[in-house]
Amino acid sequence: MPIAFLVRLCLLITAVVSGWPASAQSILLDPNTATYGNPWVTPRLNGTSASALDTKVLVTTSALPAQGDFETLGALYVQSRWPGSTGKARKLLAEQAKGMGANVVVESRVWQGLAFPAVVAPQGSGIAVLVKDHELLESLAGSGGTWE
Asked: Is the pLDDT of residue 23 over 50?
């Protein structure tokens, strides 16, 4: 055997034995605290405080009025890695909004965009809002949208 081959083999064995794969994520992580999964979807809360978040979320293309009893929680962006309809993106928006404590997603947009490993997959964006006024919530629901 040539010496170059033996040197490469020794380097490979040294890298593997010294812990080079230790930087890879372990499959033995606790699933409740692990950091793998879709980074665009906020995980749902568990426990007694999650009961208020189990309601449905209104996903609408409408904008918020200038005044009202509501709290803007933040922007949302979701992306599926697999093919599907744009309804899947609306469900992902609602799930992420629930994780933030919102009951409405306003100015929502859904589309088919480039993704990997799929060629195209559903994607979406919107703004998570906690609407505290029941009349405002009904007016947003009346202007169109879906409950997810």
From this structure: no
Amino acid 37 reads G
Q: What's the helix, strand, coil split of the chain in %, to 5?
A: 35, 25, 40
Distance separating alpha carbons of residues 137 and 58, to the nearest angstrom: 9
Closest CA to 130 of 110, 109, 101, 108: 101
Amino acid (1-letter code) at residue 31: P
Rounded-to-integer distance, Cα 53 and Cα 38, Å = 20
| 50 pLDDT more than 80 | no
**pLDDT of res. 4:** 82
Of 114, 50, 39, the closest CA to residue 83 belongs to 114
Q: Count CB-CB contacts under 10 A for residue 41.
A: 16
User: What is the rounded CA–CA span in Å between residue 93 and residue 75?
Assistant: 10
